[in-house]
């Protein structure tokens, strides 16, 4: 089984900050070593991240995400155990708001963000749409 947990958090970092880029370097190699994959979207100071992988490894990654001082207000949107990964081969893909807007997507689709499960499903649909039209890096 593959575990996953999408969450959202807030940050003062901007996508072009050096620190922002560095945030992604460490996790990518850690995720790669632990068979963890996912998608990180940053828009208007809000991170949404989908993280998925084996249970024990995911617990380690979750702790790293929680302990990071680069963001705050981490809120888990859902937790699930499924048979397949959503972002196979992507050890942490990145989307930034200049290209595509999650907030626009959620508004157009009428996703109720106060309804956690529906919010998580909307976030996944948005990320999958980016993932399906981009190549891994
Ligand atoms: C938005 C965000 C996403 C992160 N994603 C991951 C991840 O996917 N895997 C991981 O091991 N750590 C992840 N981390 C944690 C970082 O790898 C790293 O431990 C942390 O940024 C270093 O601590 P600091 O931010 O307090 O300097 C993430 C951190 C942030 C802010």
TrEMBL record:
Pfam families per record: BLUF (PF04940)
Residue ranges constituting the BLUF domain according to the UniProt record: 2-93
GO molecular function: blue light photoreceptor activity; FAD binding
Superkingdom of origin: Bacteria
Protein name stated in the entry: BLUF domain-containing protein
Organism: Paracoccus haeundaensis
Lineage: Bacteria, Pseudomonadati, Pseudomonadota, Alphaproteobacteria, Rhodobacterales
């Amino acid at each position: 089984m593959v575990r996953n947990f999408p969450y959202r958090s807030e940050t003062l970092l901007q996508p072009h900050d050096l620190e922002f880029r560095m945030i992604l370097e460490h996790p990518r190699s850690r995720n790669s070593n632990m068979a963890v994959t996912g998608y990180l979207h940053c828009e208007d100071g809000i991170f949404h991240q989908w993280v998925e992988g084996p249970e024990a490894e995911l617990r380690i990654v979750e702790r790293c995400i929680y302990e990071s001082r680069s963001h705050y207000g981490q809120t888990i949107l859902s937790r699930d155990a499924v048979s397949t990964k959503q972002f196979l081969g992507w050890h942490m893909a990145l989307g930034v708001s200049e290209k595509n807007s999650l907030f626009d997507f959620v508004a157009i689709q009428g996703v109720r963000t106060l309804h956690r499960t529906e919010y998580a499903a909307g976030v996944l649909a948005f990320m999958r749409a980016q993932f399906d039209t981009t190549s891994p890096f």
